[in-house]
Amino acid sequence: MAIKEFNTLSELNFQKQLVFAYLTCARLYPNYVYFSAKYNFGSPDILEKSINYIHQNIFQHKIDIPTIKNFLEELDKATPYPENYDTVLVSASLDACNVIFETLNFLVDKDVKRLSDISTMATDTADMYIQEIDDLDFNTDKDFQLKIDRHPIMKREIAMQQGIITYLSQITELEPSDLQTLIRLQENNRGSLNL
């Protein structure tokens, strides 16, 4: 599910776009940690180091291609695949890996399409979780999509993305205090994508 504010996000400068991507990585990361602990798989440290590297590059844009390539290789090894598990948690964990993968690549190529993918992976995580907890079936429920769109988890995720974009579009220049404000806002609304 793409957010309406994507055009506004695509018009922001690279630093602000990176903040949006970084916050999404941080928001989905706990899902990987939970999956990793429950199924004894992967390495949350790899994801955490990648997210920290992204964070460092918000204000100190010093892209090191070999470092990013190493993170991508390690991330690939730590990524679970749904066909290997019989749980909805694997999809949320995969999305957590994929948003980090897309953000690391965004550092290099600055391709705005990656931001759309990052946003969609976050709403897909919410969508999948709602289907699981409410036992929704696309084939039998004529209000399937309406129930997902109206669910508090989806509303929170959409509101989170919209709020970040609105905040970033209203400031002239990003300061460290702005990033801290957005991190606190996200932490106060922690329930949006944590399974």
Named CATH architecture: Up-down Bundle
Total separate domains: 1
Please count the beta strands (DSSP E, at least 2 residues each).
Answer: 0
Largest sheet: none
Based on helices, strands and strand pairing, what is the structural class?
mainly alpha
The number of distinct helices, counting runs of at least 4 residues, comes to 9
Enter the CATH topology name. YP_001051499.1 fold like
Q: What do we call the CATH homologous superfamily?
A: YP_001051499.1 domain like
Low-confidence stretches: none
Mean pLDDT, all residues? 89
Order of helices and strands: HHHHHHHHH
What's the overall geometry? globular
- Helix % is over 70%
CA radius of gyration:
16 Å
Protein name: DUF416 family protein
Organism: Chitinophaga oryziterrae
Pfam families: DUF416
